[in-house]
Amino acid sequence: MIDRSKMLISVITPSYNRAALLPRLYKSLCDQTCQDFEWIVVDDGSTDNTKNVMASLTSDNSMAFPIRYIRKENGGKHTAVNRGVKEAKGQLVMIADDDDLLPSVAIDIIKKSWADVDPQPSVGGIAGLDINKRTGGIIGSGLPEEHILCNAIDIRYKYHVTGDLKEVFRTDVLREFPFPEINGEKFCPEQLVWFRIAQKYSLFYINKPIYIAEYQIDGLTASITRARMRSPRASMLTYAELTTYRVPFMVKVKAAINYWRFWYCRRPDTVIPPIRHRWYWLKPLGWGMHRRDI
Fold this sequence. Notes:
alpha/beta; eight-stranded mixed beta sheet; globular
């Protein structure tokens, strides 16, 4: 039996109206070959029977890992993640969406990989590959090496790794870099926080799958543009900051265009994140993309 006061990983699941999918994720957690983790489900104000489903799973749970169910007012996935991180008891945090799964060896791989880098304070966590549930293949390019120690910016622009990756951060790092919570906005791109973390911490990237992703028709991935339009400050903040990082020039150009693209979605009370004047000439291109969006 695992000592529940000293577990390694907190698996946090932000959930909104996905009661039917939670038992599937639960089963994948039960199938883990290593159960040195807890499962925290943060219900972001669901209106379905999520509460009853979680009560059933909690009462029937005979596994070694504990389950905690937390309900909050609807505020968006990022606010649910923040709440889960505050409640986490594990040394590491893994965000597992309610429509996804974990391979049976995921926790075991994370535990063994983390043992190789744990003493290094500059390492903020580890990251592995995602599997596409529908095709069974790796999402993106995979890594060019079996292990890479670098930050989240370099993995994209120095090593040219494409596709979704699954980051597992130290809990104290996510507490140091929470998602900004903006009144009236219910979406915040993960990239905003991951790239902020990259300014201080590296990740230990492993060329092994630790996550199984399934993109739902009604999910955030499918409606990402609409979500960004409804949360213009978080979107503008993401792109404004990207123009200041050490990334290729054309990446900065595209970021500036996207900044203006969502600038046109602002509301009268939106606090506008500043961007350097050198990028103002791209404002018309942002207008063109905004017109296409609407």
